[in-house]
Each structure stands twice: as structure tokens, then as C-alpha cells.
């Protein structure tokens, strides 16, 4: 037994000596790069506020029908230019044609009867009341024929003005009813911008004022033609219409923005460089509790390097201005004048 304990003691001493001879390896700390942080604020861009608008023609019509019938023919396509009076949609009219023939026959009958009563009246062989009754029958039959001819005209739907077919809603064989949209027609010529303004934004404008706008990278000038105060019961916003002065021939339906001079930009603003775009989503990284938190946001309009945020952020949030390389939830170190993060 004594020999065994001595061997164990020697073994333990030898192990301790070997352990003391090894150096403990520890990972070396890496220096973290610094990135800037921007506080979310409600600063207004210089020169006014940008508001979203839509560019459209001053003449736009959604062509519908007042008849219940089957579509016989649609001789136009999207993007096709048409002259005033061009046939857009032809509806089936077989029933109306039959009714018209019957009405015309009835009219011919009462007109013949009216002529006989007139002849008898000349011979003092009929009473004045019989002649009045025959005249009333003729008038009633004529009204029936006119109404059927008017209904027949509605089966041939034509362009009320020259323009471009924006969209066709029906195809041959479809059954349509009264008020159902068939073709959307957009007139060529003058264009206008349509936007919604808050009461505060509308105070800086008046009818006849000229405003700047941007559309697809092109800058232009427009003149305010209508300015309705906040009439919407929910948003309390009104409608602005501005006729485009220059340039001409812009693409219809394009998203645009109007600069309202003197107005304050509503909403929070962040640097454009802070945006993280993934598909159709927009987001920013926020420094929170020593971590980078990805926030998805809804954007408004911007001015220069400032972008308006409609939702997703609060005043005072610390947005990372240069988020390249960051991951959601990644630990970061906040330092004076910036944020440091690990790769």
C-alpha cells in the first residue's frame, strides 16, 4: 500500500510540473471599426417639404355601359392611340334590333290609323276626341322607337375624345351590366399633378402659384389650378391639382413629388446612407442595448441626403449611418462620436 501511495504522489507532482510548463492560450481582442450614429429628428428640409403626387392627363375617362349585354367585339388594345369617335367596344344588340322592328311596325300602324282619322275628320265623320287619341298614339309610338334607337347607340361605345387606351377591362364574350367599366381612356395634351396636402402644407399655397416638381429624375414647373382644404373625414387632407407647364410629354401615371415652399416636412428624417434595402423592404440599423437592431420602416419623401420616415422609428433613436456589414442582433460598442461593431 505504501508503494502505491508513493507512486500516485510522484505522478501527481509530475503532472503539476507539466501543467505549469504550458502557457494558457487566449483569443486576442480585435480592434473594432468605428461607424457614425445619427439621431432621428424632425428636421425640415431647406426650401420646403416634398409631397407625393401622381402625374396624369387633364382628360381621363373610364368608359362604361348602361346596357346589360354580351361583348361582341373589342377592336382596341392597351397603348393604342384613338381618334374621337373611334369604336372601342361593340355589344350584342340582337334583342334590341328585334324590339326596334316591332316598334317601327307599331308606329307605322298608328300612323296609318291617324291618317284615316284625319280623312274622316275632314268629312265630319269623326269626332275631335278620336283625332286627339290617334295623335297621342302616334306620339307614344315615336317615343318608343326613339328610345330603342338610343339604346342601340349605347351598344356601339365610342371614344369621347382623342387619346390613348390605358387599359381594357373586358374581352369578347364577356357579359357586362350597367355601370361596369369597359375601357380606360387617357387624353393626350395637357397634364396635371394630383396630390393630397395636410392643412399645414396647404397654407403656403394658393391657386395660381407656381411650384417645382420632380418625376423620373426630370425637374419641371407646374401651376396650381385647384386647392381644396382638408375635406377627408379621416386624414383631414385636401386635394391639390397643378397643371404642368414644362416639360411636356411626360409618361402618364408616373409617381412624382411636388416641393411645397415654406412648408415643414412632416415625419422623422434619417440619412439616406443609413437605408438598408432588401427587395421591396426598407430598413435601418438602430443602436440599442449594445446591439445592432434591424428596423423595417415606411418611407416618405426626402430632400437631398435626408429621407422622411413615416413609421418604424421614434424621435431620439440612434440610427447607424453606415450600416455596411452589420447583421441583425450583432453586438456593438457605442463610443463617443460613433459606434463600433465586430465583424
Could you characterize what this model shows?
The protein is α+β, with helices and mostly antiparallel strands and 343 residues long. The protein is built from four helices and 24 strands. The strands form five sheets. Strands 1, 17, 18, 19, 20, 21, 23 and 24 form an eight-stranded antiparallel β-sheet that branches. A six-stranded antiparallel beta barrel has the order 3-12-15-14-13-16. A four-stranded antiparallel β-sheet has the order 4-11-9-6, with no helix packed on it. Helix 2 (94-122) packs antiparallel against helix 3 (128-153). The longest helix is centred in the first third of the chain and has 29 residues, at 94-122. It is elongated, with a radius of gyration of 39 Å. It starts with a helix and ends with a strand. The model is unreliable at 1-23 and 339-343 (pLDDT under 50).
Low-confidence stretches are 1-23, 339-343
Proportion in helices:
10-25%
Structural class: alpha+beta
Distance between the termini: 59 Å
How many β-strands, per DSSP?
Answer: 24
- What portion of the residues fall into strands of 2 or more residues? 35-45%
Shape: elongated
What about the largest sheet?
Answer: 8 strands, antiparallel
Mean pLDDT: 81
Order of helices and strands: HEEEEEEEHHEEEEEHEEEEEEEEEEEE
Secondary-structure blueprint:
Layout: H1 2-21, E1 34-35, E2 37-39, E3 49-57, E4 60-64, E5 69-73, E6 81-82, E7 87-91, H2 94-122, H3 128-153, E8 156-158, E9 163-168, E10 175-176, E11 181-187, E12 191-197, H4 199-202, E13 210-215, E14 218-227, E15 238-246, E16 255-260, E17 268-271, E18 276-278, E19 281-288, E20 291-303, E21 306-311, E22 318-320, E23 330-335, E24 338-341
Antiparallel strand pairs: 1-24, 2-22, 3-12, 3-16, 4-11, 5-7, 5-10, 6-9, 7-8, 9-11, 12-15, 13-14, 13-16, 14-15, 17-21, 18-19, 19-20, 20-21, 20-23, 23-24
Amino acid at each position: 500500500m505504501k508503494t502505491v501511495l508513493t507512486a500516485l504522489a510522484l505522478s501527481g507532482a509530475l503532472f503539476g510540473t507539466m501543467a505549469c510548463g504550458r502557457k494558457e492560450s487566449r483569443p486576442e481582442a480585435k480592434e473594432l471599426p468605428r461607424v457614425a450614429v445619427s439621431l432621428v429628428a424632425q428636421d425640415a428640409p431647406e426650401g420646403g417639404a416634398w409631397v407625393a403626387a401622381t402625374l396624369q392627363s387633364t382628360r381621363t375617362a373610364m368608359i362604361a355601359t348602361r346596357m346589360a349585354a354580351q361583348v361582341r367585339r373589342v377592336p382596341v388594345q392597351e397603348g393604342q392611340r384613338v381618334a374621337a369617335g373611334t369604336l372601342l367596344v361593340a355589344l350584342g344588340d340582337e334583342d334590341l334590333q328585334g324590339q326596334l322592328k316591332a316598334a317601327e311596325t307599331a308606329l307605322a300602324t298608328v300612323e296609318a290609323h291617324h291618317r284615316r282619322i284625319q280623312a274622316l275628320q275632314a268629312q265630319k265623320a269623326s269626332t275631335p276626341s278620336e283625332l286627339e287619341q290617334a295623335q297621342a298614339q302616334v306620339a307614344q309610338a315615336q317615343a318608343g322607337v326613339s328610345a330603342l334607337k338610343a339604346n342601340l347607340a349605347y351598344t356601339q361605345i365610342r371614344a369621347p375624345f382623342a387619346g390613348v387606351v390605358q387599359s381594357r377591362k373586358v374581352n369578347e364574350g364577356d357579359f357586362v351590366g350597367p355601370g361596369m367599366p369597359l375601357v380606360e381612356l387617357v387624353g393626350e395634351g395637357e397634364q396635371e399633378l394630383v396630390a393630397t396636402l395636410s392643412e399645414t402644407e396647404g397654407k403656403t399655397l394658393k391657386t395660381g402659384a407656381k411650384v417645382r416638381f420632380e418625376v423620373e429624375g426630370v425637374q419641371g414647373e407646374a401651376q396650381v389650378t385647384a386647392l381644396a382644404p382638408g375635406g377627408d373625414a379621416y386624414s383631414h387632407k385636401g386635394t391639390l391639382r397643378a397643371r404642368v407647364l414644362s416639360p411636356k410629354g411626360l409618361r402618364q401615371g408616373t409617381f412624382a413629388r411636388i416641393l411645397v415652399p415654406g412648408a415643414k416636412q412632416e415625419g422623422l428624417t434619417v440619412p439616406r446612407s443609413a437605408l438598408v434595402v432588401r427587395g421591396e423592404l426598407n430598413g435601418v440599423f438602430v443602436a440599442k442595448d449594445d446591439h445592432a437592431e434591424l428596423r423595417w420602416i415606411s418611407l416618405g419623401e426626402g430632400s437631398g441626403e435626408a429621407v422622411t420616415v413615416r413609421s418604424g422609428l421614434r424621435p431620439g433613436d440612434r440610427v447607424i449611418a453606415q450600416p455596411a456589414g452589420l447583421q441583425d442582433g450583432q453586438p456593438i460598442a457605442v463610443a463617443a462620436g460613433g459606434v463600433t461593431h465586430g465583424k
